[in-house]
Queue: 2 jobs
Job 1
Amino acid sequence: MSKVRVLVGTRKGAFILTADGKRDKWDVSGPHFAGWEMYHVKGSPADPNRLYASQTSGWFGQIIQRSDDGGKTWHQPGTPPGEPPAPGPPKAMSNKFVYDASDETGKALTTHQWYDGTQHPWEFKRVWHLEPSLTDPNTVYAGVEDAAIFRSTDGGENWHELSGLRGHGTGPKWQPGAGGMCLHTIILDPGNPQRMWIAISAAGAFRTDDGGKSWKPINRGLRSQYIPDPNAEIGHCVHHIAMNPSRPGVLFMQKHWDVMRSDDAGENWKEISGNLPTDFGFVIDVHAHEPETIYVVPIKSDSEHFVPDGKLRVFRSRAGGNEWEALTNGLPQSNCYVNVLRDAMAVDSLDKCGVYFGTSGGQVYASADAGDSWAPIVRDLPAVLSVEVQTLP
Amino acid sequence: MSSGQSVSMGSKSVSTIRIVLPQHLRTLTHTGSELTLSIEGPVTLRSTLDALEAAYPMLRGTIRDHVTLQRRPFLRFFACQEDLSHESPDAPLPEAVASGKEPLLIIGAIAGG
C-alpha cells in the first residue's frame, strides 16, 4: 500500500508526519533541529529518501541540512556527522550563499529599492525555498532573500547563483514585501528541462527558457493598486504560483490581492477571483489529477493576517477559477484567527487526491478526499512555515 | 575540565584553550557545551575562530560571515567577565583564556518576551 510523508517546517523545528494510503492514522516525528526556524523541507522526486531542509536563524545564519534516509538522520552536506574533518581547505560550503559578482560568470552586485524608496545593496539573509531537480537527486535549487536563485549540483555541498535573474536589468525596481525581498517559488517544467518559473515578493514572476542563464518578467495582466503604475512590468507582490505537472503551460497565482491564471506559460494573466470572500491570501495549489481543480485559503486582508469571519475555510474551484465553493467539513468555523503562509499547502498524488495545509496556530490539516472533509494531523506545533508531501510506493 | 597550557613546539608555542558554544551551535557540532582547541601562535579572536572552524567546519558562516569574517550581529564574545566583542580580532585574548584557565564564551544575544 502506498504511503505519504508530510514534511513540515515551523518556526521552531521540522516535523515529519507519516501515514499509509488511508491517511487516517499518523506518526509524528520531531522536532528535528529544535529551536531553529525551518523555512522549507522538500524531498527529491528522483530519490524520495533524499530530503533537503533550510534551517535558519537570526543569530547563526543559514544552514542547509540533508537526509539520505527519508528524514531518519540528517547532516550538513559535506560534513557527515561522526567523521573527523579532513585536513586542508574545506571540501564543501553548504551554507555559503554568495552572490556571483564576478566579471566572468556573474552580474554586478547592483542595488534594489528599499522600503523608503532609496536604493539598497543586495544582502543574503536566508533560503526560503528548496526545489530539488525532477531527475537528479544531487541537483537542487534555492530561492533566497534578498531575491536570487542558486543551484547546487553536488547534493547541497556548494551553491552557485544563476545571476542572470538578479542581473537581468529590472533589479533596481524590485522591493521587499513586509516579509522581506524573497524568492519563494520555483517551478520546474517536467517536459522542458530548460524552462523554470520563479516568483519574488515584491517583484513579480519571471521565466527562463535556457536553464537559468537568462530571465524575463512575465507579469502582463497583473494589476496592483498599491504601486505607482498598477500595470507595471515588475513590482507586483506575487505570493505563490502553482502548476499541475501534466499541464506545464497553465499556471495559477495567488497575488497579494487577486487570484490569477495564465494559459500561456505566464505570458498573460487574467483574474479568476470570482466569488471568493476576499482575494487576499498566500497559498494556492492544484489537484493532482484534475488540473482545473484549484485550492486557496482566503485571508481577510494584508493588515489582518487571519481568515475572515473567524472561519477557517479552504475554497475550491473545479472550473479553473471564478466559481468557488467553501470547504468547511472538519475545519473550525468560529473563533479561528490563523494564517496560512505561502509554502504551507501541498497535495499528494493518491487517488483520491490528498490536500494538506499548516497554520500559524500550529495545526496541520489533511483531507484524504480532495477537500470534502478535513481532520487535523497535529494541532499544537509551532507556527507552520511550510508543508510538502511525498507520495511513496 | 582540566586547564590548558602553552607548550613550545619547534619555534611556535601551542596553547590549549576552552570555548563554550551556545546551545544551538552544539546541535550542529554534536558536542557538549565546552570544546578544547589547540592554537598555534598568538591566541587572538581570529586565531581562535580559525581553529574552531577548521576543527568544526559545520560552524563556518554561523559565528562570522563567510566572506567578510565579521562577527554576526546577534553574537557576542565574553571572557573573564569582559565583553570582547568589539575588540580587534587580532588583539591578544586575556592570559587566562590563552592558558585555558578561563573559557571564551560565544553567546547569542538574549531576546524574548
Note: The helical segments of chain A are 163-166.
Job 2
Amino acid sequence: MASTERPLSPHLQIWRWGLHMGLSIAHRTTGIGNAVGALLLVWGFYALASGPEAFAGFHDFLTSLLGRLVLFGVTFSVMLHLCTGVRHLIMDTGRGLEIASNRRIGILAILAAIALTLGLWAGAYGFAGAL
Amino acid sequence: MTKFRTPISKVRGLGSARSGAHHWWHQRITAVVNLFLVLWFAASVMTLAGADYATIIWWVRDPIVSVLLVLLIGSLFYHFRLGVQIVIEDYVHDEGTKKISLLALTFATLALALAGILSVLKISFGG
C-alpha cells in the first residue's frame, strides 16, 4: 500500500466526451445491466422445469407491458454489449485504434446493435402472429 | 514485526505467478463463445415467440439444444463473473470489502448458473 499522497490521473469529469469514451462506459454499464437478462434466463428455465402453471406466471410477466419493456431493454443491452464486445475483440488485434477507424467501428457497433434489436423484435412479432 | 521482513518476502505471492493473462484470456474465449450462442439463443427465442408450453419443452428436450443451452448458461455466467470482478476491483478499494464482494459474486453466479443448468437438464431428462 502506498501511503504517500500522489497526484491522481485525470478521471471522467476532466476529459471532453467522445464516442470512444461513451462506448467504453456503455460496454461496462450494459455488461452489468445484462444481469437482468441473466436472471430472466434462469427464471425462465426454472419456470419451464417447474411445470405449466409456473411457466404461465413467467409468461404473464414477459407479455405484460412492464415485461415487454424490460425484455426490450435487455435485448438492446445484450446486443449493444455483444457489438461493442466484438469491437473490443477487433481492437485486441491492433486494428481500429486510429481516430478515424476507431470512430468507424464505434458507429458500426451502435448501428448493428439497433438493427439486431429491432430485427429480433420484428421477427418475434412476426412469429407470434400479431399478438 | 514488519521491519524484520525482507523486501523480497513482502512481494512474494503477490505477483502473477505466470497466470497474469489467465483472466484476460478466459474473458476473450467466453466472449467468442457467447457471441455465437447468444445470437443462436436470441434467434431461437424469436422463432418461439407465441409458442405454447409443450412446444417450448419439446424444443429444449432436443439433445443438441439441451447441450447448447447448458454451454450458454455456463459460458454466460463465467463471463459475467469475470467482468464484474474487474468492476469490483476497480471501485472497491477496501481490501476486506473487496474479498467479501468477490466471494459473494462467485457464490451468486455459481448458484444461478447451476439453477439454470439443472433446470435445463431436468426438462431434458423428462422431469
Note: Chain A has one domain: 19-123.
